[in-house]
Amino acid sequence: MSEPLLIDLSKAGRKAYCFPPLDLPRGFDQALPSLPESLSRQKSARLPEVAELDVVRHFTRLSNMVHGVDNGMYPLGSCTMKYNPKLSEHIAGMSEFTQIHPLQDVSTSQGCLSVMYNLIEDLSSITGMSWGTLQPCAGAHGEYTGLKMIRSYFVKNGQSQRTKVLIPISAHGTNPASAAVNGFDVVPIASDEQGMVDLEDLASKLDETTAALMLTNPNTLGLFEKHILKISAMVHASGALLYYDGANLNAIMGMATPGDMGFDVIHLNLHKTFSTPHGGGGPGSGPVMCNDTLRPFLPKPDIELTDSGYVYRWDDEDSIGKVSMFWGNFLVLLRAYVYILRMGSEGIRAAARHAVLNANYVAARLASTFPIPYGKRCMHEFVLSCATLKEQYGVSAQDVAKALIDEGYHPPTMYFPSLVGEALMIEPTESESLETLDRFVDTLLAIAERAKTDSESLRTAPHTTVVGRLDEVRAVKQPDLRY
Ligand SMILES: *Cc1c(COP(=O)(O)O)cnc(C)c1O
Question: In this protein, which residues make up the domain named Aminotransferase class V (predicted)?
């Protein structure tokens, strides 16, 4: 059943609020300058008038229609939809943290500053980098920041002819977008038959106009770039820098560092790897960490620990400047810090091991029914293909994804990366139990069986949701957002 809008529930005179008595003198507003006639409202705004119970039931019903990690498995590859401990939520809701103002004198915000300072230190050791910034508010924003630092570095060193950024074709779409926004030319790099960077193609494209290679490792096929040390030597030998897309650090955190792999600058997605509920657009956090080469170019202000406590440092002529208001999404930073403290280095390693084990377990159980074209062993995620189902029974990856919704699962990422036809990219994360993983696999196997006998019901799925199969192309090409 569809849910009416609040305005449809409106009845004149109903209300769900009560204000405290006015404690200003009557007529106080007479003294205020009044708005010009042309700007003031001629009749009252049409706002919904509803009772408290109407509001509560409306939003509770809407919340029941939504799928989240808290009500079912969410194997959305490349997004790391892991469980976010309630402890982090509880602490991020404490008034000591929510009621603080970013412009308060630093002598009154030492606690918050220590959270940020310690978080930068922890992220530095997790990534093998020397320092970083917490300002960027999303992964893409971190990419923008890191690439801007690379640009400034080459301008400063008299090499502004370095205008090309090399990006493997399997990369996340934000990589080429961030490079283009920074004014770089994007040069695609091919993948070899194992799904790795094609070294010959890379060698042929590295030259004195190359600024950077942007790499995701493990890549979006869930595979570790075996030749990473060779790649980083090649890139540095050509005078270019190496950028690491660390949005999905789940597979390697505590086990290996981008620093040891030879990367110069990286971004992390705290909202994926380090415990912040996400989806639907934020809030996020995409810290940028870098080595000593790029450290002078980090955004300002930086935080420094002095004899008199934590202070902001603004000076640095090479800094690219500020990239967000104040210090980024502080409460996301706080959740990440709580997560790291609570897990400890052993816990973080254990999470990485379980993320990899869970992905390999699910992949191994599915592989004989759904081919996995790249890699027998994966890291935190893998990409299977529904191409045979499509050929034999006309059932596409999208049909399988929609059928999963009816069974209580969020669909995996679809049709990405484009190297795999009819792709479903699955990332179970470390959060799920063996029983949940088995139920998920059994459900997918049952859907594959159903393709043989009842493919029509798959092509028209989902059947249990408020709205059924949507025309996704039309929704994009002809959006009609009017009420
Ligand atoms: C999610 C993701 C990004 C982008 O992060 P946003 O916070 O959505 O901007 C970049 N790269 C990879 C590999 C990702 O998975």
Answer: 170-279
Q: Is a pLDDT exceeding 70 seen at residue 1?
A: no
| H/E run at residue 246 | strand 241-246
CA distance between the termini of the chain: 18
CB 370 within 8 A of CB 390: no
Q: Whose CA is nearest to atom 14 of ligand 1?
A: 247
Task: For residue 243, give the nearest of 337, 161, 155, 174 by alpha carbon.
Answer: 174
Q: 85, 15, 89: which is closest to 55 by C-alpha?
A: 15
Q: Residue 87 is encoded by which pair of tokens?
A: 């402890």
Going 103 to 105 to 107 to 108, the CA torsion angle's sign is: negative
pLDDT at 280 > cutoff 80? no
How far is it, in rounded angstroms, from Cα 262 to Cα 228? 8
d(CA 320, CA 223): 33
Token pair, residue 152, equals: 């400034």
Q: Which atom of ligand 1 is nearest to the CA of 284?
A: 7
Q: How far is the CA of 77 from the centre of ligand 1 (A)?
A: 11
Superfamily of domain 354-477: Aspartate Aminotransferase, domain 1 (3.90.1150.10)
pLDDT: is 140 or 28 the higher one? 140
- Count of CB atoms within 10 A of residue 326's CB? 12
Tell me how far the alpha carbon of residue 257 lies from the centroid of ligand 1, in angstroms. Answer: 19
Q: Is the pLDDT of residue 81 over 70?
A: yes
Strands 164-168 and 185-189: parallel
Stated as kind and residue range, the H or E segment containing 91 is helix 86-92
Delimit the CATH 3.90.1150.10 region(s) of the chain: 354-477
174 CB under 6 A from ligand 1?
Answer: yes
Taking the C-alpha atoms of residue 426 and residue 90, their distance in angstroms, rounded to an integer, is 30
Delimit the CATH 3.40.640.10 region(s) of the chain.
Answer: 87-342
What is the phi/psi pair of residue 144, to 5°?
Answer: -55, -45
Architecture of 87-342 per CATH?
3-Layer(aba) Sandwich (3.40)
Average pLDDT over residues 272-289: 90
The values of phi and psi at residue 448, to 5°, are -65, -40
Largest CA distance in the chain: 80
